[in-house]
């Protein structure tokens, strides 16, 4: 994987090694803009990777471009592992959603990003990045959409390598699916995930809209398997996982168990499942 590299109009990508969920091994950082820049995803906690990241960021400045801020898509450690160091070394403020700031009390967040606000970056052709608050994977998750180029930075909403975990307690399956539908409605040309290559039909893969809709269909298909596996007597998560995730390698079942619980909590909200002692039953 080469770095850095062009990712989309007015966007440069820098993948850095992070302690993320396999099969992913890296988290993508992005430099958005022309003369003025936003640096998104200050991800890596590793000293060697931090040195490379800082060299990349300083190299951008050497070409006459100026970084305005470091932006967090959300609070997970494979996305913010270098935030404090990079902000101090580069003298930059950190911007994030208010909920993300609350979840990172030891990190100074200088500006709270709000849904719908526009971040305008000066350049030969100014870019306008709209903040989209997209909870579901994480309560403070944000995406950034540049309508003129059809580019959307999607953080952990989707990935082109690995999968997205909706963990009970901080994730919400119903909200996540709703936000994927919102992203699909953008009609984006390029989606820039935190993990894996850019997503674009022009590269031979699915379009961002097709991928967002595939994610929705996949989750709803899994949900149908959950509903089919429930019965009146109830079953524990441990008993349900081999049935609902029979198509998934056993090594991935601990992660599948978390996703299963997220599905069940959604079904409970809808009255289609209920707690039954130590297990779950039909609603």
Runs in which pLDDT lies below 50 for 5 or more consecutive residues are: none
Q: CATH superfamily of the largest domain, called what? A: Ribonuclease Z/Hydroxyacylglutathione hydrolase-like
At CATH level 2, the architecture of the largest domain is: 4-Layer Sandwich
Shape: elongated
Order of helices and strands: EEEEHEHHEHEEEEEHEHHHEE
What do these coordinates show?
The protein has 283 residues and is α/β, with parallel strands linked by helices. It is built from eight helices and 14 strands. It has two domains: 217 residues, Metallo-beta-lactamase, Chain A; 53 residues, no CATH class. A seven-stranded mixed sheet has the order 1-2-3-4-5-6-7. Strands 8-9-10-11-12 form a five-stranded mixed sheet, with no helix packed on it. Helix content is 33%, strand content 24%. Strand 9 and strand 10 form a beta hairpin.
């Amino acid at each position: 994987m080469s770095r850095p590299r062009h990712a989309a109009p007015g966007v440069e990508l820098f993948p850095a090694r992070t302690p993320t969920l396999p099969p992913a091994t890296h988290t993508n950082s992005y430099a958005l803009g022309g003369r003025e820049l936003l640096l998104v995803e200050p991800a890596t906690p590793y000293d060697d990777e931090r040195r490379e990241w800082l060299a990349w960021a300083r190299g951008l400045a050497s070409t006459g471009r100026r970084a305005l801020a470091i932006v967090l898509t959300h609070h997970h450690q494979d996305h913010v592992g270098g935030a404090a160091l990079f902000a101090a070394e580069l003298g930059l403020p950190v911007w994030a959603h208010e909920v993300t700031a609350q979840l990172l009390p030891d990190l100074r967040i200088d500006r709270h990003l709000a849904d719908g606000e526009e971040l305008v970056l000066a350049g030969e052709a100014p870019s306008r990045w709209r903040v989209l608050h997209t909870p579901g994977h994480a309560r403070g998750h944000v995406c950034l959409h540049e309508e003129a180029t059809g580019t959307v930075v999607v953080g952990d909403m989707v990935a082109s390598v690995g999968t997205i975990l909706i963990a009970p307690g901080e994730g919400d399956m119903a909200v996540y699916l709703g936000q994927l539908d919102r992203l699909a409605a953008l009609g984006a040309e390029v989606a820039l995930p935190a993990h894996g290559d850019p997503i674009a039909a022009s590269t031979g893969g699915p379009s961002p809209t097709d991928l967002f809709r595939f994610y929705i269909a996949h989750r709803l298909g899994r949900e149908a398997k959950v509903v089919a596996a429930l019965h009146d007597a109830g079953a524990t998560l441990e008993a349900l996982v081999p049935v609902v995730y029979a198509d998934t390698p056993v090594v991935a079942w601990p992660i599948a168990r978390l996703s299963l619980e997220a599905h069940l909590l959604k079904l409970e909200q809808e009255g289609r499942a209920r707690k039954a002692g130590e297990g779950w039953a039909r609603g």
